[in-house]
Design goal:
The chain is an alpha/beta fold. It contains 7 helices and 17 strands. The strands form 4 sheets. Strands 1, 2, 3, 4, 5, 6 and 17 form a 7-stranded mixed beta sheet that branches. A hairpin with a 3-residue loop joins strand 4 and strand 5. Helix 2 packs parallel to helix 3. The longest helix is centred in the last third of the chain and has 24 residues. The chain starts with a helix and ends with a helix.
Length: 309
Amino acid sequence: NKYYWGKIKIINFLICKGMIFMYDVIIIGSGPAGISAALYTQRGGLKTLIISKGSSSLEKAHKIQNYYGLVEEISGKELYKIGIEQAKRIGVEIIEDEVVQISNEKNFKVTTINAEYDATNVILATGINRKESTIKGIKEYEGKGISYCAVCDAFFFRGKDVVVIGDGNYAVHEAEILKPIAKSVRIITNGKRMVQNRNIDVETIKDSVKEVKGKDILEEIEFANGKTIKIDGVFVAEGIATSTDLAKRIGALVEGNNIKINENMETSVRGLYACGDCTGGILQISKAVYEGAKAGLEIIKKEDKNVSN
């Protein structure tokens, strides 16, 4: 009838306009772990989306010789491309975007620079951040004024002066969270050029940071040019948000730089899974592929159970 088809047209219109994005599984990361998980969930009948920055640490591998099934050595870049094409061939949707936030209400909401997506299950598979901040004093003042998560720690800096160190969308998103809570928020790009595709009404300082200092707690930042500013808190948001960063934001247990998982690759947050380098252990393709497959199979099993109930 007209009413029924009218509703269908409205739903299709909203989908086309980018207002409704609902998936059974959203996988963040397109390396061996993320692709392996997607191959299982998509074949298992679950609508699957991969969100990726369009790159993987796998691409940095010059030659791979110790992976099963390879008669000839292959570059990491080649293997990465094959994985992407394999997933696309079976209908996995892959978009290039940057995830800056995950929240969990009735479903998971994954926020990127350009859109928001809902999913019943989320798999974190973006690897780990192998580059630590080189700013002197950062490690010494962790928990004493240094934070890596605005969602987690903004409350402790209510009415105080804080800065976010970073030059990308991750830093901008942290500043947006802090702005209504802190007394003042500034972004320090640490000598780098600020990202252009998002705007936020906060002061931006382009000077390079030499050191963060204080007595028992963080008190000031010293720049390479000799200038100093008094500060109550520093939120480190250099580069992009890793799996561990995203896990912390949603309350999943993290140990050091690794996400804690059970035997089913599930984190302490139900429906949130992690696989690959972000879970620790050996940083090998074979381990990432296994964990991705395991996470995918467990989600299929869970969803099948939910349908039968």
